[in-house]
């Protein structure tokens, strides 16, 4: 766990990350500049308030006869400056709101888009719960950083500059020296202590993401947890991680209190020094009471936000740590990309060919070696073999979820690595072995294949998949919610929804990855009959475990240990009396045994 924390800490570049975020902000640059203009006006008014207050006090203190005229003017000016300060602050907030929330919106959409563009390899290794939390914190971080910069840090810096300018020009330089010395010590102390304690925040983030990931993982695998009676095991893992998070959180809070104490002490010493000089000046006749009020008011206006600046700085560092996770996510390379000269796939025919294809997920494990076969236009090819032979990998390579290590994959004579991914996947439909549905209605899940499909088209696809009558029997019909990952439906029901979905897409090339493995014999018989009809004029690849479902295939490829061992029609393979024949005889004996029972 600490490995993740250390990586986040040592590999961070805050200025680089902020530059990466600027395009999300600069989309509304006119609003940014207008908001900064409002900020300047507001701060000028804020600094002008103690100046006007000085004149009011001096006039009241020296010339009682002019109370009815000049003080009224300055009192009105005081009120106007207060109004301008407050009004332009609110106007700044209104103007900048669009910038802030648009940046959050854009970053969230960009992050999700990037995640969708990452390869299947990444998504098989990811922790969904941790990524979800990182995305949430990352989007919030850009809002926080903008908020701190525009509403806190920049205003305080502007006010400090204006106050220092007035003190340098109007009063003894010792006032400005004390202010700059106090601010310098304060900032140095804050930076030093904050950097020292930041690793607690990094650790909290890592543990928080880990705990959330474990919780999500256990809930998504709820049935498996129950099957093995491992509720306490999952809760224990979660409790252990949350216990570590608690320790990191307590350490973070304790060190923050230490920081606050030190900051308070520095400000107290600085303010005391300023007020001593001011009081001394008044007693010696070098300063008026108005000057004392001006200096005191400026100190209150300056050190009050400066006191919060320590908190803001820490929050900014936390936000930068959160942003770093999203930046690193956005920097993950997109493995599968369209070539510069990629063109749409042109389907003169729908032949599919693998030419000496080699592939491995990792350098130390070869999955496919020298795979060569061809499915002619409108023909059916079946791929059979034991588990782990690489059958499903062939389907993934056809969709170009991975790039192959050697050889070529051709559709209609075109190398799929040189056509656009969108056109490639538009031409292929698949019913996967493991069907996962969206947590939405059955209608949404079937129509997912074709957004503009009419209800009648959806109904027809469901009929062909032998599930229409079942759906109609449900209380909510096609509006029935299927639950997360489709858990409210049985395996067979989910698979029939997946078949209906691909039928609605109606692509020229079909892939069935053990598409009927979760169906009963009668449903399988009904669906195979329909699949035979709709695939009659389509190029079809069938990955099958039950050999009885693919005896009509024009070509059957027998795969074992990542290599093609046999290839031919059912009759030809039976004559070979090899692997396929042995598998056929084993399954036939098993089927006869089940019928006898």
Q: Summarize this, please?
A:
With 597 residues, this protein is of the alpha/beta class. The protein has helices at residues 2-10, 14-26, 29-62, 70-117, 120-125, 128-170, 173-220, 222-227, 231-283, 289-330, 391-398, 421-426, 442-447, 455-464, 468-473, 491-505, 521-534, 570-576, 579-596; strands spanning 352-359, 368-375, 380-384, 406-411, 414-415, 428-431, 509-513, 539-543, 555-560, 563-568.
Topology:
Elements: H1 2-10, H2 14-26, H3 29-62, H4 70-117, H5 120-125, H6 128-170, H7 173-220, H8 222-227, H9 231-283, H10 289-330, E1 352-359, E2 368-375, E3 380-384, H11 391-398, E4 406-411, E5 414-415, H12 421-426, E6 428-431, H13 442-447, H14 455-464, H15 468-473, H16 491-505, E7 509-513, H17 521-534, E8 539-543, E9 555-560, E10 563-568, H18 570-576, H19 579-596
Parallel strand pairs: 3-8, 3-9, 6-7, 7-8
Antiparallel strand pairs: 1-2, 1-4, 4-5, 9-10
Largest sheet: 6 strands, mixed
Helix count from the secondary structure assignment:
19
Within CATH, the superfamily of the largest domain carries the name ABC transporter type 1, transmembrane domain
Beta strand count: 10
